[in-house]
């Protein structure tokens, strides 16, 4: 049996373009009919590692971080909503939406990997944040997501206080940064080549076809 194509997706739970990028990649894989030839692993990246526990209003945050005007932000949100609609994902932006800390979410995604539930949990957390107006830094929301995908919530949440588990995420974040990953999504193929950003479905199909043929 030939080896699967390994795809590492460096991303954050609260990154809209990461969701759009993954959904397009998923569509490309599905259209090529190569689901059983792909092995996806999610890698941690925090857009806002210093985000305090109370979070920050999204509009305020984007203004501060990127200098974007309200008009630019509203246009960008509409653009993302349209892209999401095309892929069957709902972006529900609202005035009181808050950007939150995602470190704990990354610890749980690492935990989910051992049970082959990483992608499921990632999508559940992303949906909670973007579609269901939920704060994915809160333990009760994280617990809901874990239960939703059939994981042992008590076992998983215990990892949040585990120093080794926390250090593991820090090390992984630093590893990808040391390779020059400073924007997400960054999608890495067999740890040899990468594309950044939410590429169109056809671009992903071309890249995947070439890589599978080369295998």
Automatic annotation (TrEMBL):
Transmembrane segments: none
Full protein name: DsbA family oxidoreductase
CDD domains: DsbA_FrnE
Domain DSBA-like thioredoxin: 7-208
Top-level taxon: Bacteria
